[in-house]
From TrEMBL:
Listed transmembrane segments: 39-58, 78-105, 164-181, 201-218, 345-365
Record protein name field: Cytochrome c oxidase accessory protein CcoG
Source organism (scientific name): Chromobacterium amazonense
Keyword tags: 4Fe-4S, Electron transport, Iron, Iron-sulfur, Membrane, Metal-binding, Transmembrane, Transmembrane helix, Transport
InterPro entries according to UniProt: 4Fe4S_Fe-S-bd, 4Fe4S_Fe_S_CS, Cyt_c_oxidase_cbb3_FixG, Electron_Trans/Redox, FixG_C, Helical_ferredxn, Ig-like_fold
Gene (name only): ccoG
Length: 477
């Protein structure tokens, strides 16, 4: 049984002499994480600011007169700077998801839950909500006293201000999300009258509401009970995975002492049992009880403990990033980097590299236009005035580039086959689709009764080396 499960209190309520109700659920207690300063806290601040600048800023970037990152669901086109992704390109979405999955597996095997501690949206938004809380209500002790105090005008003012700022930020995130699917500049223009459609309104409040709920109220409960990653991460951990650990051999037995006192003379370890490592933990665990699945690897306890060690005049690193094998002395911590060559890491990295290279190669070799051939089924075959047989087709040409393109259409497969279109050349504007109706004529002596395989050749006149050949059929009499 893990240490985290051992700590869950079991409540027994006597119903009668012969029965009892046992609760195996831990009672939720509001956490008041203490602010901390240090190297890893600076990294967290950097990641919070960086991820939010990326998320909130991308919709405002322009590219070739349009939004640089824009998912146009109505016209079924996704714009990623100079790349236009069409529904036919969704194989790249599958490749992207595979790359994300194997990158997460690889990183987890190497360094545990660093993603959770620094870049996960739940962690980032919770950190922002804590900043708002600390700015409005004060530090940990002030927040605890405020919550314990009876309601007053002062308390109502602080609580109202805090929740107003949290709601405003949450709605901003929801507004930005919709800005990826509806041009964000048009959203801003419609803001004074709130002239949004039902789906735009729904997603603004849906995403904003859940941001407010998860980051403002549930916080660590999402990480502990709702996030599936916390449950299956143990499958990817091994004794060489980088984790946050408390050096029990150095720290125990723990106990209070005066500054400057020699702990060895008092029979004590370096841990002074100040519990600051617990007070700064955003999920409320005690890292001194060993590795627990709730730990998100944020390293707040490392910064806090290092600060205490500095004040006591002890070496840093009582709590640190290390591996289980290094902590047990099986190899020195300088050798941790050499353990990256183990089979699990190599396998994950190899699969990630293969998928990534395949996707990039396919994208690089992708033709700058796509073609769909649709037969006119309302009129399968008719005879022309000169006695030839004629079939009608609709050819859809998709220009996937940012430049206008001109195309010529020919066909082969039957002797003397001819293609007639309204214009000899077809202009397809940048990132647009053009539908062209063409008639294909064939000599009836070759186009006998039944279906005959033919091929349409669509050639770019901008670059004659680029051509697409699509198979179709010609119906004869």
């Amino acid at each position: 049984m893990s240490e985290s499960l051992k700590k869950i209190p079991i409540k027994v309520q006597n119903v009668d002499k012969d029965s009892a109700t046992i609760s195996l659920y831990e009672t939720q207690k509001k956490l008041y994480p203490r602010s901390v300063k240090g190297l890893f806290n600076n990294f967290r601040i950097l990641f919070v600011i960086g991820t939010q600048l990326l998320y909130l800023g991308l919709p405002w970037l322009q590219w070739n007169g349009r939004q640089a990152v824009f998912f146009d669901l109505i016209n079924r086109k996704f714009y990623l700077f100079g790349l236009t992704v069409w529904p036919q390109d969704f194989v790249y979405l599958a490749a992207l998801l595979m790359c994300c999955a194997f990158a997460l597996f690889t990183w987890t095997t190497i360094a545990g839950r660093l993603w959770c501690g620094y870049s996960c949206p739940q962690t980032v938004y919770t950190e922002i909500m804590l900043w708002i809380e600390q700015w409005v209500e004060g530090d940990r002790n002030k927040r605890m006293k405020l919550d314990a105090a009876p309601m007053s005008l002062h308390k109502l003012r602080l609580k109202s201000t805090k929740h107003f700022l949290m709601l405003a930020f949450s709605l901003w995130t929801g507004f930005t999300l919709v800005g990826y699917f509806t041009p964000i500049r048009s959203l801003v223009a419609a803001l004074p009258t709130f002239g949004y459609g039902p789906w735009e309104t729904f997603w603004m409040f849906f995403y904003g509401g859940f941001t407010y709920l998860f980051a403002g109220f549930m916080r660590e409960q999402v990480c502990k009970y709702m996030c599936p990653y916390a449950r299956f991460q143990s499958v990817m951990f091994d004794a060489d995975t980088l984790i946050i650990s408390y050096d029990e051999a150095r720290g125990e037995p723990r106990g209070a002492r005066k500054k400057g006192a020699d702990p060895k003379e008092q029979g004590l370890g370096d841990c002074i049992n100040c519990s600051i490592c617990v007070q700064v933990c955003p999920v409320g665990i005690d890292i001194r009880n060993g590795l627990q699945y709730e730990c998100i690897g944020c390293a707040a306890c490392i910064d806090a403990c290092d600060d205490v060690m500095d004040k006591m005049g002890y070496p840093r690193g009582l709590i640190r990033y290390t591996t289980e094998n290094a902590l047990e002395g099986k190899y020195s911590e300088k050798a941790i980097a050499s353990r990256l060559k183990r089979p699990r890491v190599v396998l994950y990295s190899l699969v990630l590299l293969i998928v990534f290279c395949a996707a990039v190669t396919s994208l690089a070799l992708r033709k700058p236009f796509k073609v769909d051939i649709i037969r006119d089924r309302a009129s399968l075959v008719r005879e022309t005035e000169d006695g030839w047989l004629e079939n009608s087709y609709i050819i859809k040409i998709i220009n996937t580039t940012e430049q206008n393109q001109r195309f010529a259409i020919t066909a082969n497969g039957l002797p003397g086959i001819k293609v007639k279109a309204e214009q000899p050349e077809t202009l397809v504007r940048a990132t647009e689709t053009e539908s062209i109706t063409v008639q294909v004529q064939a000599d009836p002596q070759y186009a006998t009764k039944g279906s005959h395989e033919i091929h349409f050749v669509i050639q770019s006149l901008n670059n004659p080396a680029l051509r697409v050949e699509e198979k179709s059929s010609f119906i004869g009499e």
